[in-house]
Amino acid sequence: MNENQIGTEIVKCALEVHKNLGPGLLESTYQACLSYELQMTGLEIMKEHPLPVIYKEVKLECGYRLDLWVEQKVIVEIKAVDALNDIHLAQILTYLKLTENRLGYLINFNTSKIKHGIRRVVNGL
User: Fold this and answer.
1) Structural domain total, the chain
2) pLDDT tens digits, 68-77
3) Whose CB among 4, 26, 30, 59 lies 3.0–4.6 Å from 109's, allowing a Cys bridge?
4) How many other C-beta atoms lie within 10 A of the C-beta of residue 58?
5) 8 Å CB contact between 110 and 24
6) Can you give the pTM of this predicted structure?
7) b/e per residue, 67-101, with b = 16+ CB within 10 A?
8) Which domain holds residue 12?
9) Three-state secondary structure along the chain?
């Protein structure tokens, strides 16, 4: 599957999770349920995958963790906040740069309509 096809599956699964759970739960709950839905589609998922920073050929463990890394092609950052803001966008853009991935999704499940909480993020590399 290419990145866009994976992205379509991510959005479908996020809609399913939100339809069943609604807003107001912890990020960890949404992460577990979205991971389950994605795995049921046959996609390979890595949860809480550690992401080091390479600085001048030194590998630094800085504590970054990807919420979900789908097929090692698309990053999903899950939130359950009142509103997404610039720091959330900066976070996923950093992850995209460090992994050299092009596509990510910032998903805020704490919305009455999930379509308002899904942000597709593209790294121009």
Assistant:
1) 1
2) 999 999 999 9
3) 30
4) 8
5) yes
6) 0.91
7) bbbbbebbbbbbbbeeebeeebeebbbebbebbeb
8) 3-122
9) CCHHHHHHHHHHHHHHHHHHHCCCCCHHHHHHHHHHHHHHCCCCEEEEEEEEEEECCEEEEEEEEEEEEECCCEEEEEECCCCCCHHHHHHHHHHHHHHCCCEEEEEECCCCCHHHCEEEEECCC
